[in-house]
């Protein structure tokens, strides 16, 4: 087999992509004739491609006749940024998973909500069954409690007013006063003692940005009997959290 042969390329896809690049190069928009010249395409082909892109939401014709990028391009860009973040975060989670033999989780504050960003697990380190979204069960998870502890009192009470303290297991804390008291951890290590799921314990440490402001949390899950050993390995979790802090700084700067 000839390993050096060129891959099969779809000419129509290439033309559409080159046309989108031409559209993107004009922040104020450009007419179809100009886009055709710059893309090296026949005018008729340009019109057909523009109409197709407009139908799919990737291009838009303004009232004065010029063409600009459509709303779906921005949507793709936002998803691309998320994928870039995952590509940088995942190696740290995998490394901690392999060090401690546990499933690892990373969450962040996003638009005043607590979001689970990524999980690294495996056959020997299975993840907890996420039967209730972490964003709706912050009070019952180490990840969520760690992130709630990062909020000031006003934002914390606002969050809890919008997210009822649902009883998930017999160990779930459902009293606001008791929960607020449990958020204070002198070691900076938040714990979930079978509060989210029976048979599972969790621990979490804060993740900060370049200014030292807490923006998320790094967490692990394991069998409850293994949790004391994990607590003794908290320094490893903090070291990996510091790696994530550098990752977030570099990703934001790129």
Automatic annotation (TrEMBL):
Location of the IclR-ED domain = 72-254
Task: Supply the alphabetized keyword list.
Answer: DNA-binding, Transcription, Transcription regulation
Alphabetical list of PROSITE patterns matching this protein: HTH_ICLR, ICLR_ED
Transcription among keywords: yes
* Every HTH iclR-type domain range: 10-71
Keyword Transit peptide listed: no
Cross-referenced SUPFAM superfamilies = GAF domain-like, Winged helix' DNA-binding domain
Protein name in the entry: IclR family transcriptional regulator C-terminal domain-containing protein
Give the species this sequence originates from. Answer: Actinomadura napierensis
The uppermost taxa in this organism's lineage are: Bacteria, Bacillati, Actinomycetota, Actinomycetes, Streptosporangiales
